[in-house]
Amino acid sequence: MVAPVKKNDRKTVYIEDLTHDGNGVAKIDGYPLFIQGALPEETVEVHVLKTLKNYGFAKIVDILKESPDRVKAPCIYFGKCGGCQLQHLSYEGQLKWKENMVRNVMKRIGKIDAPVLPVKGMQDPWNYRNKSQIPFSMTETGPIAGFYKSKTHEIVDMERCLIQVSEADAMMANLKKELMEIGVQAYNEQSHQGMLRHVVVRKGRATGEVMVVLVTNKHKFPQKEAAIELIRKLVPNVTSIVQNINIEKTNVILGNETVTLWGKNFIEDTIGGVRFEISARSFYQVNPVQTEVLYKQALDYAQLTGDEIVIDAYCGIGTISLFLAQKAKMVMGVEIVEQAIEDAKRNAELNGFTNTYFEAGPAEEVIPRWYSEDKEADVLVVDPPRKGCDEALLTTIIEQKPKRVVYVSCNPATLARDLKILEDDGYKTMEIQPVDMFPQTTHVEAVALLELKFVDKQ
Ligand code: SAH
């Protein structure tokens, strides 16, 4: 394709959509131009920055017709920090865009015509993140801390973040200033020198308990007493201070070794009446308010009467499993990370569940084996990572025919692909309910209900 525009051209364009990065998309004779900060239904005058074979980039010179959903982004770091993409779109506008996006992806990729319901959003779509992983870095002008610019490892030095909890703000804003005084150096990625790499803050929303994890580039931590005192001063409700050691030259945040410096080695939280212990390294959903909405939806779609055997595939620390176990005869959870399965077992015990069974391993291998041992399920719940379900698991579903499948997905594209595979072999998608787990960003979570429509007679 020959680009119909070239660098430094000025054009007036109509914005049709948003990309996953939150950029506006305009098309000139079918050639897409990506424009930072532009919103759907806007007419904007742009200056072309760069053209490639199949697409180009432009920047806004003037907004000629503004979207009725345009708002002033409340965060001063918006556009620099890579965390949020949609703060310039009203929350209602965000929910509307997410609903349309899910509907379009379902049609385009899956040819799915099931109803896509309006997105379940938050009443207060701010300060929802219960976990922040804050990179620290030593620069020529002193230590900085914040979040990365989009697609880079460059830290935007920040004092606060409007989607995280205030305890994480306290760490971000003050720790870097006061660290020097106690003699702790921030890490430098280039030289691999310095002590403090990341600070991870986690909060149990229901309990108010806070864990602060200091990720250090060394085992020895001579200033640890002073650091404990400083953190307790900055975050008075801290209940756990942990050192995690990561001496590798790597982008992976946490190392394998953790030492509790002060307080407990976990925090507790509850979701919908179920208690969870969360340690420094366990996976836990980052928006607890919406997690409850999501799990309730999954439970609702599972339509349990108390007699069902349920399989929860990709179960993590068993959060959905325990939610379902309140209404099922038996729940069997499978998850590839062994530590998560240990956590799931402990959480089941903590809550007094005796109708759960957890096993570590790949879902696509463990579930066929369960079926071969006559451990059959009436309802199957899946919550896979972004890449969707493994094909072997979909084949098992098609062969074993559980009467209902509840599919929890963080990626509408792979959801649509997998729904299509199941629809081609006996299932019908009844309904799709998107849930906004990540306000101000382009991420969307969705739950789909599938029912078995016919049984192959052979
Ligand atoms: N349902 C959980 C976790 C969902 S995240 C919750 O709501 O908290 C997806 C999970 O799938 C992760 O815990 C990941 O470790 C796990 N996973 C990835 N590939 C897997 C596989 N092949 N088999 C089983 N689990 C897998």
Automatic annotation (TrEMBL):
<comment type="similarity">
    <text>Belongs to the class I-like SAM-binding methyltransferase superfamily. RNA M5U methyltransferase family.</text>
</comment>
<protein>
    <submittedName>
        <fullName>23S rRNA (Uracil(1939)-C(5))-methyltransferase RlmD</fullName>
        <ecNumber>2.1.1.190</ecNumber>
    </submittedName>
</protein>
<dbReference type="InterPro" id="IPR010280">
    <property type="entry name" value="U5_MeTrfase_fam"/>
</dbReference>
<dbReference type="InterPro" id="IPR030391">
    <property type="entry name" value="MeTrfase_TrmA_CS"/>
</dbReference>
<dbReference type="InterPro" id="IPR012340">
    <property type="entry name" value="NA-bd_OB-fold"/>
</dbReference>
<dbReference type="GO" id="GO:0070041">
    <property type="term" value="F:rRNA (uridine-C5-)-methyltransferase activity"/>
</dbReference>
<dbReference type="GO" id="GO:0051539">
    <property type="term" value="F:4 iron, 4 sulfur cluster binding"/>
</dbReference>
<feature type="domain" description="TRAM">
    <location>
        <begin position="4"/>
        <end position="62"/>
    </location>
</feature>
<keyword id="KW-0479">Metal-binding</keyword>
<feature type="binding site">
    <location>
        <position position="383"/>
    </location>
    <ligand>
        <name>S-adenosyl-L-methionine</name>
    </ligand>
</feature>
<dbReference type="Pfam" id="PF05958">
    <property type="entry name" value="tRNA_U5-meth_tr"/>
</dbReference>
<keyword id="KW-0004">4Fe-4S</keyword>
<feature type="active site" description="Nucleophile">
    <location>
        <position position="410"/>
    </location>
</feature>
<feature type="binding site">
    <location>
        <position position="285"/>
    </location>
    <ligand>
        <name>S-adenosyl-L-methionine</name>
    </ligand>
</feature>
<keyword id="KW-0489">Methyltransferase</keyword>
<keyword id="KW-0408">Iron</keyword>
<dbReference type="Pfam" id="PF01938">
    <property type="entry name" value="TRAM"/>
</dbReference>
<keyword id="KW-0949">S-adenosyl-L-methionine</keyword>
<keyword id="KW-0808">Transferase</keyword>
<dbReference type="InterPro" id="IPR029063">
    <property type="entry name" value="SAM-dependent_MTases_sf"/>
</dbReference>
<dbReference type="InterPro" id="IPR030390">
    <property type="entry name" value="MeTrfase_TrmA_AS"/>
</dbReference>
<dbReference type="GO" id="GO:0070475">
    <property type="term" value="P:rRNA base methylation"/>
</dbReference>
<keyword id="KW-0411">Iron-sulfur</keyword>
<feature type="binding site">
    <location>
        <position position="335"/>
    </location>
    <ligand>
        <name>S-adenosyl-L-methionine</name>
    </ligand>
</feature>
<dbReference type="InterPro" id="IPR002792">
    <property type="entry name" value="TRAM_dom"/>
</dbReference>
<feature type="binding site">
    <location>
        <position position="314"/>
    </location>
    <ligand>
        <name>S-adenosyl-L-methionine</name>
    </ligand>
</feature>
<feature type="active site">
    <location>
        <position position="410"/>
    </location>
</feature>
